[in-house]
């Protein structure tokens, strides 16, 4: 990826915790970062001021000055924010950096008749001197380069993803579907252990765990081979959770995943790629 480092004017929508952290790094790198205070909370204004962001009169004024506009907002608002930006006639680089599906980011790209759209995703905590994160970017190299240049040398590492718009978002969905679901699973497990008074034993077993499931996909061959036994176990877990008044949907979903491997029963030699393929719906 060719990284451009000349100072530019950037529009940031909107400076939440992640957005303010990203904006602060761009300011530190010598760029002018604009934001729109209209309709924003006092907490947002405080974050933006502390990060060194400059207030724009309105969205039209922001897009008239900015060569790059970065959208970092709640996922549900992503298309509306993009539609508002497109409505101003923006003709620079629009960075769709929200946690949304590849299909949604492609729909957003279609909203812009003049701007070039870069698909981005941030993985990691709000970047700072104490915490690094990665900004994955996909799109035309001539457009991703200037975006990467906003943060060169800082704790937000720009990483190119081959392919067009949608590829960075696909990575975010793949990573987030594990990371967020794992947090929900941990919460439900600890809640169930608390109901039965076995929390100490659960923690002891958890601390013996050394396997990182996401980092070692090779073990999934064994998971597929054992799945015929694990699906009923997860259904028992779901029943136990329901009896305790806890959410059982995650356990039932896991059982449904395992049942897609029914045909791989005890096939411990199955290649990982075949096991992954068998998770896809027949018409997928």
Automatic annotation (TrEMBL):
Pfam families: DUF1932
InterPro entries listed in its UniProt record: 6-PGluconate_DH-like_C_sf (IPR008927), 6PGD_dom2 (IPR013328), NAD(P)-bd_dom_sf (IPR036291), Pgluconate_DH_NAD-bd_C (IPR015814)
Protein name: 6-phosphogluconate dehydrogenase
Domain Phosphogluconate dehydrogenase NAD-binding putative C-terminal: 193-261
């Amino acid at each position: 990826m060719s990284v451009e480092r000349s100072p530019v004017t950037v529009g940031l929508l909107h400076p939440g915790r992640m957005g303010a952290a990203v904006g602060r790094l761009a300011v530190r790198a010598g760029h002018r970062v604009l934001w729109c205070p209209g309709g924003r909370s006092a907490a947002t204004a405080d974050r933006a001021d502390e990060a060194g962001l400059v207030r724009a009169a309105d969205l039209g004024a922001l897009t008239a000055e900015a060569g790059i506009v970065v959208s970092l907002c709640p996922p549900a608002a992503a298309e509306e924010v993009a539609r508002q930006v497109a409505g101003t006639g923006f003709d620079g680089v629009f960075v769709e950096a929200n946690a949304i599906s590849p299909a949604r980011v492609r729909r957003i790209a279609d909203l812009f008749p003049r701007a070039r759209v870069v698909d981005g995703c941030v993985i990691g905590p709000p970047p700072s001197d104490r915490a690094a994160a990665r900004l994955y970017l996909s799109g035309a190299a001539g457009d991703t380069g200037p975006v990467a240049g906003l943060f060169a040398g800082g704790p937000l590492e720009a990483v190119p993803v081959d392919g067009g718009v949608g590829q960075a978002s696909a990575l975010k969905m793949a990573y987030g579907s594990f990371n967020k679901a794992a947090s929900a699973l941990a919460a439900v497990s600890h809640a169930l252990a608390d109901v039965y008074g076995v929390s100490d034993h659960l923690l002891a077993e958890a601390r013996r765990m050394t396997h990182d499931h996401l980092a070692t996909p090779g073990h999934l061959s064994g998971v597929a081979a054992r799945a015929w036994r694990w699906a009923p176990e997860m259904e028992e877990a779901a029943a136990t959770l329901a009896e305790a008044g806890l959410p059982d949907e995650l356990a039932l979903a896991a059982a449904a995943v395992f049942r897609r491997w029914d045909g791989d029963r005890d096939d411990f030699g199955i290649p990982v790629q075949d096991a992954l393929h068998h998770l896809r719906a027949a018409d997928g």
